[in-house]
Amino acid sequence: MANNPKPHHLLLLLLLLLSFSNLSLSSISPPSDGPPSVYELLPKFGLPSGLLPDSVKSYSLAEDGSFVVELQKNCYIQFDYLVYYEKKITGMLKYGSISNLRGIQVQRFFLWFDVDEIKVDLPPSDSIYFQVGFINKKLDVDQFKTVHSCSKKVLVPGGRLWNRGVELPIPVDDIKMLMTE
């Protein structure tokens, strides 16, 4: 003779299944449609997401840590210093640092210097370090926590627009030469 479950047992089993499925469905995050964005990837390496502008078109990261980031266009961002981003940025990503960096420059005293390396303290602190040649500059990490919009032109003090290139004066034939002995 077949064992027929009682109707209240079926109802109880159904309620348990429904409540379990609701709990498990709410705790499962939706599947990702691909790799994380570069802004999600940087914090996984202990770096702030605002190191790059909001105009990243694509990026690739090899198993050895070498990366290429493609921006939509060259741009500027004003942090404590004016930073210039080339359209293509390359380097070596490791936990807490980016080395062999190419494609990011910083302005100091009207001169542009390549940023060679970026590091953070481990364990994390309020500081981030930028290696420019033999100079190591410590800055407050808070200014790099949010992703900034980039600009092709820069507003300098006084409200004037300024391009990265230096414009030389147009030669004039009627200017007299200064002779020195």
Automatic annotation (TrEMBL):
Protein name: Protein like
A Pfam match: DUF538
Alphabetically ordered keywords of this record: Signal
Endpoints of the signal sequence: 1-26
Keyword Flavoprotein: no
InterPro entries attached to this UniProt entry: At5g01610-like, DUF538
Entries under PANTHER family matching the protein: EXPRESSED PROTEIN, T31J12.3 PROTEIN-RELATED
Origin superkingdom: Eukaryota
Species lineage: Eukaryota, Viridiplantae, Streptophyta, Embryophyta, Tracheophyta
